[in-house]
Backbone:
């Protein structure tokens, strides 16, 4: 048999450029496709803080509480506004008028709760209701506190 001679330089092909160009094109194609998937920031919908539109009604309701004690004293949000002998309740009327104006300016409903003690006089409750009527407040609710 005849021995084959192996040439050591025959197997080395050298630096191949064609596969390198293919890899570069694949990487470039990947980045081009991914660049189109990025969202532009101006497309995000967000609301920045600013001024409030007062043309529509605000959704908060502040309830004002008028208390009537057994002695006839009248308290507005736990502050005394009328003594037992004050039948006109001028101080309460002025406060209720200001409350009504503020509610109208804010376009919110004006709610008043009349909290009478169980043994208070009904006449005093009627005087408080008259003060509410003079101020133009129509949303009035009642609460009777029980003695313990």
Residues:
């Amino acid at each position: 048999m005849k021995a084959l001679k192996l040439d050591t330089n025959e197997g080395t092909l050298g630096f191949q450029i064609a596969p390198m160009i293919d890899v570069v094109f694949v990487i470039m194609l990947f980045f081009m496709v991914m660049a189109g998937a990025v969202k532009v920031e101006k497309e995000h919908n967000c609301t920045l803080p600013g001024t409030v539109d007062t043309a529509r009604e605000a959704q908060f309701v502040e309830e004002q509480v008028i208390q009537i004690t057994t002695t006839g004293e009248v308290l507005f949000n736990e502050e005394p506004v009328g003594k037992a002998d004050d039948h006109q309740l001028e101080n309460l009327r002025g406060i209720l008028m200001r409350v009504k104006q503020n509610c109208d300016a804010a376009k919110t409903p004006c709610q008043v709760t009349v909290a009478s003690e169980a043994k208070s006089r009904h006449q005093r409750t009627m005087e408080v209701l008259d003060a509410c009527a003079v101020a133009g407040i129509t949303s009035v609710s009642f609460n009777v506190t029980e003695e313990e």
Notes: The mean pLDDT is 81. Helices lie at 18-37, 90-106, 122-135. The longest helix spans residues 18-37. Residues 63-145 form a domain with the Nucleotidyltransferase; domain 5 fold (CATH 3.30.420).
